[in-house]
Amino acid sequence: MRTHTTSTLKALILNDMDPSKHTMTKQEIDTWIQMIPGIFGDMVKTINMFTSIMSTKTMACKQINQIQRECTVLLDGIFKAPRIDKNMIMLQTAMSGCITNILKLIESDYENYMDYTVYMPLMHVKGEAVQIESNLKKIVAGFEQHKVDQVLQVAVFHCMKEVIRLRRISYSRMRYVQRLQRLVIGELDNYKGDLNEKICSLLFDEDYNFKGFTDYYQGWIRKQYAEESIETKYHLMISYKQFFEKLVARKGVTRYDDKKMATHKIMYEFMDLELKGK
Q1: Counting C-beta atoms within 10 Å of the first and last residue's C-beta, which end of the chain has fewer, N or C?
Q2: pTM of the predicted model over 0.85
Q3: pLDDT, tens digit (0-9, with 9 covering 90-100), for 96-123
Q4: Are 112 and 77 in contact (CB under 8 A)?
């Protein structure tokens, strides 16, 4: 079901605002700019309607997810469109602001209905990647100051550089990296002990199941019992295995890669193999 409002916006952005299909007059542009507050209001009413009258949450999610996807297509259309003159630029700016506010509303007020696997609009990826890059520079400097292991640094930086490099990023991946950066910067500002151990613990807690990290973490754990007596080593390995076995994914924590095994399961299987080959 396409709402009347998104159908109208699609006709405007992908047809009327396309100079190869139509040349808009200043009067047309001014009329559309004046209509934008009403368009946003209609969209809010539509979203409220879906969440209040649909018989199941699944049905409401389906409609809101469609609005998400349509808004992304429309914003990408504006992002790729030529900038012809100041009047058209004003309309493009106003329309992109309206659609951006719709997406922000869905994420802030209707997050339980939102599909976080949907790709973000290109202009949003570009804008948010700028902040990711700025934070990455702070983290690089902080890691150097705290003498964080180079291999661990590479593992941490992987997800951040990926967001900066790629044009297509899902909401879940972008929000994951942003959250991880905030947590890492918080540790850099406040933690006074061995940052290698603290960062490992943080990445584990945040279910960072990137292979570069899980490989490093396995090596780090091996070092904890490498020089111990056979008996102590065995007890430590059993303790680690039991710890990983009892863990479940924490509610509200998004896994780095949903297509791969959770970090605690990867570590449990690692410890199981370690015990079998001890």
Answers
A1: N
A2: yes
A3: 999 999 999 999 999 999 999 999 999 9
A4: no
